[in-house]
From TrEMBL:
This is Raffinose/stachyose/melibiose transport system substrate-binding protein. Keywords: Cell membrane, Lipoprotein, Membrane, Palmitate, Periplasm, Signal. Its main location: periplasm. It is found in: Periplasm. It comes from the Bacteria.
Amino acid sequence: MRTIIGLATALIGAGLLSAPARAEQKEVTVWSWFVQSTMQKSIAAFEKAHPDVKVNYTYYNYSPEYITALKAAAASGSLPDVIGLQPGSLTQQYREDLTAVNDLAAKEWGADWAEKVFPVNRKQMLMGNPAGDKNYYIVPQESQVLCIWYNRKIFEKIGISVPKTYDDLKAAAKALSGAGYIPMFQGAADGWQNENVFLMLANQFAPGIVDKAQAGETKWTAPELIAAMKAWKGLFDDGVFQQGALGAHAYPTGAQLFAQGRVGMMALGSWWMQESKFPPPLSEFVQAMDGFDFFYLPPVVAGNQASPPVGGIDIGYGLTKNGAKNEAAWTFLASLTNGEGLQEALNDLNDLPAFAGHEPKGDISDHVRQMSARFMADLPKAENQRFASPAVAEALDNALAGVAAGSLEPEAALAAVQAATDKALGK
């Protein structure tokens, strides 16, 4: 009898015999732009803890592939169980397709779970919700701080220092170009990267002014924002950005060139630390991140301060209404944002945690630990990075592209953003 049972057990383990007592394996579908190699580590850790669940992940480049895929799936009612989100405009664009997670999160982590999320992230989790709607439709996985990364080995090689003034920045760009390097790579075909740089500029003139403008508390045509838009145009005209920036993408093009040591500077964020964890082949500059460091954009006008830290939620996840029908979908989302899945992402230095009490573990260089500590110290004082309204974000993207191309004057471009804001606020 024992021999027969043993044979049956072996056949079940080999997949040659079904086990009526064993529940059928559940599947969870996930879409995101989250780094595929890191996501697979998070999935492996989750599936080890939950062997009855299989996670199927689909990776997209964020722009335009991911955005296009989400629109098509939402239109056809075929969104996956879990989707990667940014707070504010992207979350609001799909709010009707998402499930509020307040009760699920409270059951998972306790009634005070949101208090464990860093304050800037917690604010962004509600950004754009209709008045009185205190539901959370996004759970943050990671935080970020925006900055200017630079290749310090190239800087040393050609004898330039971290820019302290705008004249320094222009001189550094000229020296880099003269030495055959791309000065500051800007993926100006990507609205998100243009927004990030504009936020750096605007906060030099008046910290928090973009938040006030999108809330209707000040005008987009305020002198400070017009000055910031003119400064944005200056980055193109003064040769700080590379030739052809308007047709370029930050990912994969810019990031690959930066990693290969062909770019001097690039506006990215704390997530760039992850490059040190990617498998070979990588350039000599990326290994252990020893070839890289970061600074904040220097003041474009004498007397202003350098750009403050800007940031908040790097990436979060939403449970779709399709996913709400699949109990395993929330289990995976919880792991990914505040469990074993998150730990794998932090170990890969994908970015900073969104929940307090986490830190990367494993083989990390002293230089990276120091940079991570600097980012974590700056995160609590970061200005908000996100936009509440999809229409306002789109209007700003169009304004930035038009001004950069020379087809719009700053005043007219910002007037269009104001009109979109008035409409979004019901004015």
